[in-house]
Design goal:
mainly alpha, 3-stranded antiparallel beta sheet, 7 helices, elongated
């Protein structure tokens, strides 16, 4: 499925929760689904305009900011709800993840274990930070939305993020050990070569 279409469904899902401006949508995406779904903000506004022209969303109201800017707040239409429900029932389109870390590790022999180890350490630190941010969100969702019928669905996506990050941290630890062994072996071989001279 094209990226723009998926952006459309992310927008529809968010607007089903409450009317929002483009800026509000950006914040809501970051705050809620940002740990597993990223959307180009350059794509968000044109998609929103196209959806308005197609009758999937409508202008709810205009808000004036203190700086004089006008912020358009959109709501989902009945047609938008129908299109979203239809998409939600369709099978998920499989995709191949683009993972630059794994690509660099795959070719890591070209530069040696030190560079690869640095990549793994950075990735581990990023995962730890994200996990630390996600755990309170999980607790907050469970505490503050106990009667919300969306809670089980929200919790499933958060749990996938938590478990995925925990698995990534375990993998980082294994990768660190393997790369450190490679570095020691490399250092040992270099020392032997120097001693032979």
């Amino acid at each position: 499925m094209a990226r723009e279409n998926t952006c459309q469904f992310a927008i529809l899902g968010m607007l089903c929760r409450e009317p929002m401006s483009g800026y509000g949508l950006r914040q809501a995406i970051e705050r809620t689904v940002g740990h597993f779904w990223q959307e180009s903000y350059g794509n968000l506004y044109p998609t929103l305009e196209r959806m308005e022209a197609e009758g999937l969303v409508a202008l709810d109201r205009e808000e004036h900011s203190p700086g004089g800017r006008v912020r358009k707040v959109y709501r989902v239409t009945e047609e938008g709800r129908r299109v979203l429900a239809e998409w939600l029932r369709r099978p998920v389109v499989p995709h191949v993840e683009r993972n630059e870390l794994l690509l660099k590790l795959f070719f890591g022999a070209r530069v040696g274990p030190e560079a690869s180890l640095a990549h793994v350490e950075r990735s581990r630190a990023e995962a730890e930070a994200l996990l630390a941010a996600l755990r309170p969100i999980d607790e907050d969702v469970r505490r503050s939305r106990e009667s919300d019928p969306e809670l089980p669905y929200l919790h499933l996506s958060i749990r996938a993020g938590l478990l995925g990050l925990e698995a990534h941290l375990r993998w980082c630890d294994e990768a660190r050990e393997a790369l450190q062994r490679l570095a020691r072996t490399k250092d040992s071989k270099q020392k032997e070569t120097r001693d032979e001279r």
